Amino acid sequence: MKITEALPVGTVVKLRNAEKRAVIMGIFQQVEENGNKEFFDYMGVPYPEGFIGAENTVLFQQSDVETVFSLGFSDIERQSFVLDAGKHMSNDKNAE
């Protein structure tokens, strides 16, 4: 997924095979375990509860999103972040 296609933080979604909805609290997450890096499009927490502990966060990909119920807030600050992150990600790929 391109960063310019990322849903904003605060977006409420229904994930495939999930009973509860989730609210996105982070985008482009990286998890490192035993020296292996894994990337996820989003990190979410249960809706409507929000963050109730790290054990209740979920990492997921754009393809896991079944339904978008409400889009999060987007303004010029987010647009700048998306542009900067897109440039950074392009530079990382070119360095490989």
Describe the structure.
With about 100 residues, the protein is an alpha+beta fold. About 20% of the residues lie in helices and about 40% in strands. It has a single domain, classed as Thrombin, subunit H (Beta Barrel). It has a five-stranded antiparallel sheet with strand order 4-3-2-1-5, with no helix packed on it. The radius of gyration is 14 Å and the shape is globular. The model has no long low-confidence stretch (mean pLDDT about 90).
CATH topology: Thrombin, subunit H
Mean residue pLDDT: 88
Q: Please describe the biggest sheet, giving its number of strands, its sense, and whether it closes into a barrel.
A: 5 strands, antiparallel
**DSSP helix fraction:** 10-25%
Categorize the overall geometry: globular
CATH class: Mainly Beta
CATH architecture term: Beta Barrel
Low-confidence stretches: none
For the termini, the CA-CA separation is 18 Å
DSSP strand count: 5
Order of helices and strands: EEEEEH
